[in-house]
């Protein structure tokens, strides 16, 4: 059993949350009981995730995509689906905490660093909330596709086109495909991201860069899983990742 506030202070410090100007609430979003005995992790807040986690006995739910975002649907309204979700958590006296951009950007536990580890990339350098790494020796597209399929349970889409052998790759998960021009301008041979904006395939062709799309959800599984493993090791608590498949 661990004090909730001590545990979340550890996470806030680990992920350096205070340095981010995010458009959501990072940290505790719904307050429940003060003592934590089990932690459930998942990509996104949803009733399906909440129910599965509570059936397992979790009292801290830890996600990447939480409940409260600027202006959606309104910063001062607690109605509809949002009201139902919050009411459920309060009735169960369970905690919900979320970490968005800080969990994307972390150089070890973050979504982007974790994907780059599957690609055996080294010498990581930050770009936006992602990272660029070097692949040594250089690899071809089929090799990257194979490694990305190991990192992500869903389909991997390849568009555009760059050099036959890929030496540098940038990973920015989630809805970052519109950064393809920035990534190409920094000299990357390949760009790995989440969902794919309509204009990106033709842009990638004209920019001469490979783009690999994993889907938003599938590109952001590894960070929350890695954070859960760290908390399990640090606090000696049971931690379980709950998969709620999402094709988007």
TL;DR?
With 248 residues, the chain is an alpha/beta fold. It has nine helices and 13 strands. The relative contact order is 0.17.
Describe this structure as you would to a colleague:
It is a single chain. This protein is of the alpha/beta class and 248 residues long. The chain has two domains: 2-100, NIF3 (NGG1p interacting factor 3)-like (Udp-n-acetylmuramoylalanyl-d-glutamate--2,6- Diaminopimelate Ligase, Chain: A, domain 1, 3-Layer(aba) Sandwich); 106-216, NIF3 (NGG1p interacting factor 3)-like (Udp-n-acetylmuramoylalanyl-d-glutamate--2,6- Diaminopimelate Ligase, Chain: A, domain 1, 3-Layer(aba) Sandwich). Helices cover 35% and strands 25% of the residues. The chain contains nine helices and 13 strands. It has helices spanning 4-14, 47-56, 80-92, 101-105, 111-118, 141-151, 180-185, 200-207, 222-235; strands at 2-3, 27-30, 35-36, 39-44, 60-65, 95-98, 122-127, 130-139, 157-160, 166-171, 190-193, 210-213, 239-241. The strands form three sheets. Strands 7-8-10-11-12-9 form a six-stranded mixed β-sheet. The chain has a five-stranded mixed β-sheet with strand order 2-6-5-4-13, with helices on both faces. The longest helix has 14 residues, at 222-235. It is globular. The model has no long low-confidence stretch (mean pLDDT 96).
Task: Please supply descriptive tags for the structure shown above.
about 250 residues; alpha/beta; Udp-n-acetylmuramoylalanyl-d-glutamate--2,6- Diaminopimelate Ligase, Chain: A, domain 1; 2 domains; 6-stranded mixed beta sheet; 13 strands; about 25% strand; globular
């Amino acid at each position: 059993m661990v004090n909730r506030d001590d545990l979340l202070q550890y996470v806030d410090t680990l992920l350096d949350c205070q340095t981010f100007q995010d458009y959501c609430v990072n940290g505790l979003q719904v307050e429940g009981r003060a003592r934590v005995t089990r932690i459930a992790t998942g990509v996104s807040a949803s009733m399906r995730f909440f129910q599965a986690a509570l059936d397992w006995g979790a009292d801290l739910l830890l996600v990447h995509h939480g409940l409260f975002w600027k202006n959606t649907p309104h910063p001062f309204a607690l109605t509809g689906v949002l009201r139902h979700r919050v009411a459920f958590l309060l009735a169960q006296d369970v905690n919900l905490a979320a970490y968005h951009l800080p969990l994307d950007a972390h150089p070890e536990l973050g979504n982007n660093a974790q994907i780059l580890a599957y690609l055996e990339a080294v010498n990581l350098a930050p770009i936006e909330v992602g990272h660029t790494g070097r692949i040594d020796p250089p690899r071809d597209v089929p090799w990257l596709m194979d490694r990305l399929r190991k990192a992500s349970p869903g389909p991997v889409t390849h568009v555009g086109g760059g050099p036959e052998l890929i030496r540098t790759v940038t990973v920015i998960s989630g809805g970052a495909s519109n950064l393809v021009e920035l990534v190409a301008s920094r000299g990357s041979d390949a760009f790995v991201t989440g969902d794919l904006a309509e204009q990106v395939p033709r842009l990638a062709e004209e920019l001469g860069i490979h783009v690999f799309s994993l889907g938003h959800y599938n590109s952001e599984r590894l960070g929350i899983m890695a954070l859960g493993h760290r908390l399990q090791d640090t606090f000696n608590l049971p931690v379980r990742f709950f998969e709620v498949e999402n094709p988007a």
